[in-house]
Amino acid sequence: MTHADLQKAAAIHQEAFVRQQRSYEWLECNLNAAPRFLNFVAESDGDILGFITWTQKSGFRADAVLDLELLAVASHAQGKGVGRSLIEQSLPQVRTLLAEQGSTLKHIMVNTRADNFAQTLYKKTLGAEVEVTIPDLYSADEVIMIARYVDSKT
Predict the structure, then answer these.
(1) N-acetyltransferase domain: from which residue to which, for each copy (predicted)?
(2) Measured between alpha carbons, how far is 80 from 111 in angstroms, rounded to an integer?
(3) Between the CA of residue 58 and those of 34, 74, 85, 118, 135, what are the distances in Å?
(4) How many degrees, rounded to 5, is the angle at CA 8 between CA 56 and CA 80?
């Protein structure tokens, strides 16, 4: 993701996360916080179809724990494998960036609403499993999913 992508990505963010506010500023903060936040877009013919943000948790570590912070796909592109592609195509780039800082990927965390159908995507693409459910955290119950020892599995 670049600054040129922010306007379109913010529109997708607002559409996907309707309870959140100031989408442009939120994404701009994440973009400006690299390399802690690693941001990627899916694009086709100049159109931003979706974006993903990975966050390094608890400092820069030799054994990095990442949070799949955000994943959003434009409504017109949903159901076409864009979310899966964002995960599968950005993760090798993330691993390369981690290696450049002397890190390897240990775990990936994902938190999402307990009723979010994307849990299936996270399980299939990352091997993430629900570890805990937190009642009424944001707008509903939230689950924390973890893919453990990612680099040793893939």
Answers:
(1) 1-150
(2) 23
(3) 15, 30, 27, 25, 24
(4) 80
Which domains, from first to last, does the chain contain?
A: 3-153 (3.40.630.30)
Q: At 15, is the secondary structure helix, strand, or coil?
A: helix
Strands 104-113 and 63-73, sheet pairing: parallel
CA distance 83 to 73: 6
Residue for token pair 């912070």? 69
pLDDT per residue as tens digits for the range 58-98? 999 999 999 999 999 999 999 999 999 999 999 999 999 99
Does the model's pTM come out above 0.85? yes
